[in-house]
Amino acid sequence: EIVLTQSPGTLSLSPGERATLSCRASQSISSSYLAWYQQKPGQASRLLIYGASSRATGIPDRFSGSGSGTDFTLTISRLEPEDFAVYYCQQYVSSPITFGQGTRLEIK
Amino acid sequence: QVQLVQSGAEVKKPGASVKVSCKASGYTFNSYGISWVRQAPGQGLEWMGWIRVHNGNTNYAQKLQGRVTLTTDTSTSTAYMELRSLISDDTAVYYCARIPNWGEEYFDLWGRGTLVTVSS
């Protein structure tokens, strides 16, 4: 099973700042089969990034994904108030599908 | 409107079973897959399994093998997740999610979740 470790656990930033979230895998994720999701209380989770760097439909271009192998990054270039949420990475290169434990992005 | 609408909250006793539904609308149900993911209180996301709607093929997480069954009803565009022999650790919000591309099992559409509480 591939274990995904996200860091930091909590990130405190202000609107307008840049956010960098990390996801590290216990083994290499070939074909960059890694996705990022945003989760807010009471709402359906939202796919942000798939294939490590492809933005999902309707996702603003302030969200970007990068990385390969075992190290992946989600970057939010300029934080908007609606971006404060919990973010999860997910690998789908092998079964079982696994998620990271999440990064909480909170308003400073 | 493209969406997945899940059934309401459930309270079950240990040892019982629960069946959660997920009704799809706004897209061709047979052309996608459905996965189920759960989230225990204050915890992260745990993948449970997926089902290919067009042929019924399934893949379950080893941890839940034998206790979980995923099915679909194409006549109503509804997916179901049944979990048996419930224990307190099964208390969680259960989500259905759409798989857009086979061979790349990420999830592009999620339901809002169904809270299942297991308590005596």
Verbal overview:
Chain A has strands spanning 4-7, 10-13, 19-29, 34-39, 46-50, 54-55, 63-76, 86-91, 98-99, 103-107. Chain A is mainly β. Chain A is built from no helices and ten strands. Helix content of chain A is 0%, strand content 55%. Chain B has 120 residues and is mostly beta strands. Helices cover 0% and strands 49% of the residues of chain B. Chain B is built from no helices and eleven strands. In chain B, strands 2, 4, 5, 6, 9, 10 and 11 form a seven-stranded mixed β-sheet that branches. Chain B has a four-stranded antiparallel β-sheet with strand order 1-3-8-7, with no helix packed on it. At the A-B interface, strand 5 and strand 9 of A face strand 10 of B.
Alpha carbon gyration radius of chain A: 13 Å
Summarize the amount of helix of chain A as a percent range: under 10%
Span between termini of chain B = 39 Å
Spans of chain A of at least 5 consecutive residues whose pLDDT stays below 50 are: none
Biggest sheet statistics of chain B: 7 strands, mixed
| Ends apart, CA distance between termini of chain A | 35 Å
Written as H for each helix and E for each strand, in order along the chain, the element string of chain B is EEEEEEEEEEE
Number of strands of chain A: 10
Structural class of chain B: mainly beta
Please tell me how large the radius of gyration of chain B is.
Answer: 14 Å
Secondary structure class of chain A reads mainly beta
Give the number of helices of chain A.
0
Task: Tell me the overall shape of chain B.
Answer: globular
Mean pLDDT of chain B: 96
